[in-house]
Amino acid sequence: MKKNLSVLAYGLMVLGLWGLIATRSLLSPSPFVLVPQAGAVVLMVAARIAFGLRSFHFAANPTKGGLVTWGPYRFIRHPIYTSVCLFMVPGVVAHLSLASGMFLGLILIGAALRMRFEEALLVAEYPEYADYAKKTWRMLPYVY
User: How many other C-beta atoms can be found within 10 angstroms of the C-beta atom of residue 118?
Assistant: First the structure.
């Protein structure tokens, strides 16, 4: 059930992204947008390197190979979702409108739901995940 719900949550994120692209609310030449978006890309690359050659799944599905706790995963449990959200927020702020806010809301809600479903599956696959979760932040240190 959680895997199926995670696909729905992923769909919300994709719908939000499509909306931001369609309304041209994602990118801006402003350094106030480009700098945090570049930081989000660096975080994404670091997370993918730490995650290794494991593949992405549309449904939340813990991969074999052990729990990843190094690189950005040492500090936050979901650096890939964090990087996606950090990439979207500056663009929306630069093009703030009801529509862009709603599309960002879809992305944030989808990411939050997907993280919850993934964590439940990770605890079942890796019992040590519960201890890891107590020592790390979900997305932003000292915030969430």
Answer: 22
**Other Cβ atoms closer than 10 A to 127:** 10
Euclidean distance between CA atoms 51 and 32, whole angstroms: 29
Residues in CB range of 125: below 8 A, 6 or more apart:
62
Is residue 88 classed as helix, strand or coil in its secondary structure? helix
Q: What is the pLDDT of residues 97-143, one digit of tens each?
A: 999 999 999 999 999 999 999 999 888 888 899 999 999 999 888 78
57 closest CA partner among 2, 106, 107, 109: 2
CA distance 62 to 54: 10
SS (H, E, C) 21-36: HHCCCCCCCCHHHHHH
Question: Which tens digit of pLDDT belongs to each residue from 28-52?
Answer: 999 999 999 999 999 999 999 998 8
H or E segment and range at residue 49: helix 31-51
Domain coordinates of the chain in residue numbers?
A: 2-54+65-135
